[in-house]
Amino acid sequence: MADSMQCIRVIDSHTGGEPTRLVIEGGPDLGSGPLQQRLERFRRDFDHLRSAIVNEPRGNDAIVGALLCEPHAPDCSAGVIFFNNVGYLNMCGHGTIGLAVTLQYLGRIQPGLHRIDTPVGVVEARLHENGAVTVNNVASYRHATGVEVTVEGYGKVTGDIAWGGNWFFLTSDSPCSVELKNLDQLTDFTWKIRQTLEANGITGRDHGHIDHIEVFGAPADPGANSRNFVLCPGKAYDRSPCGTGTSAKLACLAADGKLQPGHIWRQESLIGSLFEGSFVPGDGVVYPSVTGTAFVNADSTLLLDPADQFVYGIR
Ligand code: PYC
Please, are residues 227 and 220 in contact by the beta-carbon 8 Å criterion? Predict the structure, then answer.
């Protein structure tokens, strides 16, 4: 192998169909500061590696990348920075489930409770004996309710704005059933909602950019409470029910008194995968727990050849 070739070892997994690519060796050296600081360094100095790892021709628009880091917060098993085809995520629920299953595959953790350091604070991942993982996510809350926007081609749409580790606009005003056969229309609808929010300066708290749009409809599984479609920042849809999106939904259900603390909410994804969520109430917030399963499906080395025109991905 040529000396100039850069090697990055990754483990791929999927959580309810949504892929996670965990970088375990050869990623950027971001120092040892708080994870938010390291994320900013990743963005500033190594964004080409983000693209190289998740974008075509090595990846695709749906892959969420995860950089395994030494934690900064005390008593953590690991630190992680999530990224995607267009940038960086604050938190990622499906990715944290994938991370826990991958760390078990590597023999680095055993069933039990593990603290994970992220750019938005410490979350917990409980790895169960049966392989399922429960993520105790960051405090989540509804920021605004009954937000009405006029969306080109669709008319008035009403929804909530909530934080679940990322900012979400959540609505049940869907122009079609929430089914895979309607993927194109759901993508167009939610992309236009996002553009409308941006054009009207509608944000989360502290100008938080709303870069995830979540639409709810009837589930196919009679045991589920709801099905969702989640548009991710780079226009791909979440194949899983979205951990941070389920957390945002739990915050809205709690604010409306529609779900009691400790009761289970079964959230189905567009492709029929399932997360179970519940919450513990806090002061103006909820503490969500989201349970799902993940499977490791590749253990490989990415090769970055400087002679390759697309060494850093198609961007
Ligand atoms: O599971 O939180 C999540 C997530 C965010 C974006 C894709 N998945």
Answer: yes
Residue pair 53/64 in contact (Cβ under 8 Å)? The answer is no
Determine the Cα–Cα distance for residues 140 and 136; give it in Å rounded to an integer: 11
Q: Which of 69, 76, 232, 242 is catalytic?
A: 242
Largest Cα separation within the chain, whole Å, is 61
* Neighbour tally for 75: CB within 10 Å: 9
Catalytic residue check, 252: no
CA distance 262 to 197: 33
CA of 68 to the centre of ligand 1 (A): 17
Neighbours of 229 (CB within 10 A): 27
Ligand 1 pocket at CB < 6 A: 18, 64, 89, 92-94, 166, 232, 238, 240, 242-244
From 76, 92, 232, 252, the catalytic residue: 92
Does 7 qualify as catalytic in the annotation?
no
Amino acid present at 43: R
Question: Separation of 188 CA from ligand 1 center, angstroms?
Answer: 19
| Dihedral, 13, 14, 20, 21 alpha carbons, nearest 10 | 30
What is the pTM for the complete model shown? Answer: 0.98
pLDDT tens by residue, 161-214: 999 999 999 999 999 999 999 999 999 999 999 999 999 999 999 999 999 999
Q: Where are the alpha helices (DSSP H) in the chain?
A: 35-45, 47-54, 93-105, 183-199, 243-255
